Amino acid sequence: MHRPTAIRRGDGVGKTWLALAIAQALSAGGKLGDWQAHERVKVLYVDGEMPPDLMRSRCEGLQASNGNLEFLNHEILFERTGKVLNIANAEAQQAITARCVNTRSKVLILDNLLTLASGMKENEADSWELVNNWLLDLRRRKIAVVIVHHAGRSGEMRSTSKREDNVFWIIALDDTKKNADDKRGARFTSRFTKPSRNTQEEIPAYEWHFVTDTNGEVSISYKWAQSIDVFRRLIEDGVTECNQIAQEMKISPATVSRFAKKGIDAGWLKKEGREYVLVPLEK
Fold first, then answer.
1. Phi/psi at 56 (nearest 5 deg)?
2. What pLDDT, in 10s, does the model give residues 13-61?
3. Which of 251, 272, 271 is nearest to 262 (CA)?
4. Contact assessment for residue 277 and residue 270, using Cβ atoms and an 8 Å cutoff
5. For the purposes of burial, counting CB atoms within 10 Å of the CB of 199, is it exposed (0-12), middle (13-18) or buried (19 or more)?
6. Phi/psi at 219 (nearest 5 deg)?
């Protein structure tokens, strides 16, 4: 369980929704979709972006409130201590580690890397070492870390690739709201882009829909995502070459070519040089 995981995507897709739902399932020993927690564990959720009131309302809607789930919010910390929550700072790292150890937390969720590691230069590997050494220490202490991070324009994790070196799983989120009839709430597909050294089995992609009703209660629906839909959304997101798509989807280039043929035959895809391009819909 002490394996680091990254959740990545752009703004407003659903990273925090998914991270909160994972925190709730782990702390309650429950289930999120087809993902079942093996046991109830203590979780520390470090929030570097959300206003406290909004985070509180989301937690209430998800019923993410129990003795095993604790939150550290950046605004509340500043109001009470005058300190900025910065995980690139050794003092903050030591304090978070001590809190995990003292409360026997088995999972630490960092939401998100961009706001929590202020001052760290994105494109410098040496700068990342300020945080990486701390994450390795947490792993040695058998504390699993979930990192929420923004993706770049290509869909990959922003900045230096060294950030992925010690990550065992990467869960990428793709926005699905744009093409959905029901545009309420957050809609996205989750897919594992780095499961290779953890399991030989293919991990399916899921399409999630988080909806908040008038009473503030959140419902979560999910279904298996069709591979052809994932293929199409990758192209929408700028991953357009065959080998890139194959690497993202963990499939062979031949399978990508079969998806492309279906898209070309259906009229929504064309190929320009080495790149696949979506055909605009006629109005």
1. -65, -40
2. 899 999 999 999 999 999 999 999 999 999 999 999 999 999 999 999 9
3. 271
4. yes
5. exposed
6. -105, 140
- CB atoms under 10 Å from CB of 191, counted, come to 24
Q: With beta carbons less than 8 A apart as the criterion, state whether 159 and 123 touch.
A: yes
Measured over the CA atoms of residue 167, residue 47, residue 20 and residue 108, the dihedral's sign is positive
Tell me the per-residue pLDDT of 69-81, one tens digit each, with 9 for 90 and over. Answer: 999 999 999 999 9
Backbone conformation region of residue 174, classed left if phi is above 0, alpha if psi is from -120 to 50, else beta: beta
Q: Are residues 179 and 263 in the same domain?
A: no
Pair type for strands 269-272 and 275-278: antiparallel
For residue 20, give every residue at least 6 positions away whose Cβ sits within 8 Å of its Cβ, in sequence order, or none. 45, 58, 59, 62, 64
Q: Are residues 264 and 184 in the same domain?
A: no
Distance (Å, whole) CA 83 – CA 18? 28
Q: Tokens 């957050």 — which residue?
A: 186
* Model pTM above 0.90: no
Structure token digits, residue 269: 């895809």
List CB contacts of 23: < 8 A, sequence separation 6 or more.
43, 45, 64, 69, 107, 109
Q: Which helix (H) or strand (E) holds 129?
A: helix 125-140
Full domain range(s) for residue 117: 5-225
With H, G, I as helix, E, B as strand and everything else as coil, classify residue 191: strand
43, part of any domain: yes
Q: Scanning the structure block, which residue is given the tokens 């990486």?
A: 132
> Are the C-beta atoms of 146 and 7 separated by less than 8 Å?
yes
Within a domain: residue 162? yes
